[in-house]
Design a protein that fits this description.
Blueprint lengths: L5 H20 L4 E6 L20 H21 L4 E6 L16 E4 L16 E9 L19 E6 L2 E2 L2 H11 L4 E7 H11 L3 E10 L2 E4 L2 H17 L13 E7 L3 H6 L5 E5 L2 E6 L2 H13 L7
Parallel strand pairs: 1-2, 1-4, 2-3, 4-7, 7-8
Antiparallel strand pairs: 5-6, 5-10, 8-9, 10-12, 11-12
């Protein structure tokens, strides 16, 4: 007796094809979270921002809580994987034991992609927590760009950018959009003006460089959850922040000697007493140059 395999094989093939089609539609939604500290609830001075500050240990807790609020909302909104970047100070501010076990964490420096280390083209969106305004902004708590002590301005293709702009451009290199930011009112206003209608959580209102009116931690966390959930529901609407290549990086220092010494490099042009220019083929080159510029010291040891 002949056994007819063809109908059975056809049915199996149909089932396999259907399973593959469904699997193809189940897209992994990876989210990148970059966390700074100046924009965290209640932060107003150096007392909260570094190991020598008497309030630093407490405000590490608040920073971690804000990141956890963003993580919780991102997962609730459909994220399948989250990478967190500890992007403040020494890169060791987040309390690792208080983060959920289903995320991974980038810590310490130097990193080729700076505050965005670990991002790539597989991510669906980036979230900025605890961000601040730029060094050229006359408003904002602890407003600065990369280094409050040394840098007076950073420009990409003649556009003055905050740290969020630099980081958004790195994400944009990989076609990843920024979808949400939290910080004070000056930071959120500046960043949304640059990046477009992303979700913004204003958790304090600046009165000056070292003063603000602030929400309480629980209220700030609730607002961050709300804004991240909205951002996750709008994922398809956001566009990456793209900078045309090659990229002209202009950096203005508060002192003249860094510009003088950096101009000894053949890849650097000194444009005035306090400023230099570097031409990078893309944001990866620009990021590496900035990281070198802000981290290199002749006495570096392992």
């Amino acid at each position: 007796m002949r056994v007819r395999y063809r109908p059975i094989c056809f049915a199996v093939a149909m089932v396999i094809g259907l399973v593959c089609a469904v699997a193809a539609q189940v897209k992994r939604t990876k989210i990148y979270i970059s966390a700074d500290m100046e924009g965290v609830v209640g932060v107003v001075t150096g007392d909260q921002l570094g190991p020598t500050g008497f309030e630093y240990s407490r405000f590490r807790e608040f920073m971690t809580q804000e990141v956890n609020a963003a993580i919780e909302a991102a997962f609730a909104g459909g994220a399948t994987e989250i990478v967190v970047s500890d992007s403040h100070g020494n890169g060791e501010s987040l309390l690792i034991e208080k983060l959920p076990k289903n995320v991974t964490l980038v810590r310490a420096w130097p990193r080729p992609l700076m505050m965005m280390q670990g991002i790539d083209e597989t991510f669906a969106g980036a979230i900025f927590i605890g961000y601040h305004a730029s060094t050229t902004n006359p408003e904002g708590v602890r407003a600065h760009t990369m280094s409050s002590a040394t840098l007076a301005d950073v420009r990409l293709n003649n556009v003055s950018v905050p740290e969020a702009g630099i980081n958004a451009a790195i994400a944009g290199h990989f076609n990843v959009p920024v979808i949400m930011v939290s910080g004070d009112d000056a930071a959120v206003k500046e960043i949304t003006a640059l990046l477009g209608p992303i979700e913004g959580a204003v958790i304090k209102w600046n009165y000056g460089f070292h003063s603000a009116r602030t929400l309480m931690p629980e209220a700030a966390n609730d607002l961050i959850r709300e804004k991240v959930k909205k951002a996750m529901s709008r994922l398809a609407e956001f566009k990456p922040y793209k900078v045309s290549t090659p990229i002209q990086l202009d950096v203005r220092f508060k002192n003249y000697r860094p510009a003088e010494v950096l101009s000894y490099l053949s890849i650097v042009k000194r444009t005035d007493a306090h400023s230099i220019r570097f031409l990078g083929k893309d944001m990866i080159e620009v990021s590496k140059f900035l990281e070198f510029m802000t981290n290199y010291e002749p006495g570096l040891t392992p």
